[in-house]
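Sanity check

After download, print the first record. It should look like this:
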Amino acid sequence: MTGSIEGDESWLAGAKRELLEETGLEGHVNQLDLTFTFHDRWNRDVEERVFVAEVFSSEVELCEAEHQDFKWIPVDEVKETHYKHKNNYESFIEAVRCLKS
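Expected structure tokens:
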């Protein structure tokens, strides 16, 4: 999932808010030392910061206005082909490394 910060909100506060708004989930959220920069479809520079969350529940209340579906996949079954963008897979690998340390 992705999102933006609002007003003078910190990156971490924005990540927690987006997690709750888009999934109904709450948990421990931490920023990873991973940032991607790219151009969006309007040729604007976009900076994407990566966060990892350990959630308190697996019961998702999906925001249907933003997402069509979701699926929990065991870590050892995740493949690069599950991701449309390579940087999302790289983020997943870094998140797993962070959670295991």
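If your output differs, re-run the checksum step. Summary of this record's structure: Residues 86-100 form the longest helix (15 residues).
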